[in-house]
Amino acid sequence: QSALTQPASVSGSPGQSITISCTGTSSDVGAYSYVSWYQQHPGKAPKLMIYDVTYRPSGVSNRFSGSKSGNTASLTISGLQAEDEADYYCSSYTSIYTYVFGTGTKVTVL
Amino acid sequence: QVQLQESGPGLVKPSETLSLTCAVSGASITSSWWSWVRQPPGEGLEWIGETSHRGTTHYNPSLKSRLSISVDKTNNQFSLKLTSVTAADTAVYKCVRNGVGGHAFDYWGQGALVTVSS
After folding, report:
1. What mean pLDDT value characterizes chain B?
2. Averaged over A18-27, what is the pLDDT?
3. Cα–Cα nearest to B103, from B35, B53, B54
4. From the CA of A71, how many Å to the nearest CA of chain B?
5. What is the pLDDT of residue B74?
6. Over pLDDT 90: what percentage of chain A?
7. Which chain B residues contact residue A1 at CB under 8 A?
């Protein structure tokens, strides 16, 4: 299985909105509503930000939102803050009962 | 509060077997599926495989021939064995709970760095 494709980097100014894409295939992203997103600060464990495409776990800011169209899922961060600077990974369940992560996106707050 | 803690050797010789255990506290091993994820230094996340409390497993196809994941309900832990390791298996290995919704990883261990070197 191939990693899901994400842009290597995305940047924005404080207060702006940015969107990170996650492109897979009809066997993973396009097949199920089981896309999740993770935030990882340097040296830290990943933190679940979005699950099942659009749902936020308790405690996650509503500035984070998820969506999906066809084989591409997206994470939008609104009102960008300095603390949002981190690496972000998407993940999807697949048709062969496995999971696949995205290539990762480095978010920079200018 | 669910906590996961990896343990095992930090250095493994090429061609030998990498073995790690994940101790779970704050939740029963029977409540969820449990996964292993690895991250080579400076690189991205790779899903390794998962186990249920009944011992049903699913593996990353690229690792399947070398991989075994097992569960120990008595001690509320699960384990990973990866045989015939090479330098490409050097990574931080993290144990994870497949929690909310059933298909998202909501609790992570801090990770254990395993270096493959002679």
Report:
1. 96
2. 97
3. B35
4. 17
5. 95
6. 99
7. 60-62
- Which chain A positions have a beta carbon within 8 Å of B101's beta carbon? 34, 36, 51-52, 55
A32 to chain B, any CB pair closer than 8 A? The answer is yes
Those of residues 12-51 in B touching chain A at CB distance below 8 A are 35, 37, 44-47, 49-50
In sequence order, what DSSP letters do the residues of chain A get, joined into one string? -PPBB--SEEEE-TT--EEEEEE--TTTTTT-S-EEEEEE-TTS--EEEEBTTTBPPTTS-TTEEEEEETTEEEEEE-S--GGG-EEEEEEEE-TTS-EEEB--EEEEE-
The most distant pair of C-alpha atoms in chain B lies apart, rounded to whole Å, by 42
- pLDDT given for residue A38 in this prediction: 98
Cβ distance A62 to A56 under 8 Å? Answer: yes
Question: In this predicted structure, what is the pLDDT of residue B70?
Answer: 96
Residue identified by tokens 């290995």 is: B93
Burial of B15 (0-12, 13-18, 19+ CB in 10 A): exposed
Write the pLDDT tens digit of every residue in B66-110: 999 999 999 999 999 999 999 999 999 999 999 878 899 999 999
What's the pLDDT at B104?
A: 95
What value does the CA radius of gyration of chain B take, rounded to a whole number of Å? Answer: 13
Angle in degrees, CA A62, A63, A64, rounded to 5: 85
Report how far apart the first and last C-alpha atoms of chain B are (Å, whole number). Answer: 39
Cβ <8 Å between B105 and A100: no
